[in-house]
């Protein structure tokens, strides 16, 4: 069973898997088997992998879009993964390095042409990061709608 928690001040949502928490505070969570302390850099010894998913939306017009480049303002180290979500949530995933300048880019496939596009970002190694902005540059087809 999963537990979904919403921070009412910031609107941030977290999902805890493998725990049937019945109550939660900023530092502790409880279920029928006991009380757990929340905190640290791991989840019971496992890296904490974050997944951010933006819904598929129709961007600007009904003409097919092709992605040119994705730019991210992001602090962290190591590599992250950016995914383009096509029809039915089908992902095209791309790994990219995080740079010390806190500005990075992700080169995406040139063959993706869709009306509705969604996006996702994750840290597969569980490293710390903070994200300030994602900028997605698209090129619009001149005539193609279907």
Write up this protein.
- This protein is mainly β and 146 residues long.
- 0% of the residues lie in helices and 55% in strands.
- It contains no helices and 15 strands.
- It has strands at residues 3-6, 13-16, 23-24, 28-31, 34-37, 42-43, 46-47, 51-58, 65-76, 79-85, 91-97, 103-106, 113-114, 116-122, 129-140.
- The strands form five sheets. It has a four-stranded antiparallel β-sheet with strand order 8-14-10-11, with no helix packed on it.
Order of helices and strands: EEEEEEEEEEEEEEE
Low-confidence spans: none
Can you give the helix content as a percent range? under 10%
The largest sheet, given as strand count, sense and whether it forms a barrel, is: 4 strands, antiparallel
Helical element count?
A: 0
Strands of the largest sheet, in order across it?
8-14-10-11
Span between termini: 41 Å
Rg, alpha carbons: 18 Å
Measured by DSSP, the beta-strand proportion falls in over 45%
Structural class: mainly beta
Tell me the quaternary state: single chain
Give me the count of strands: 15
Shape, principal axes of CA atoms: elongated
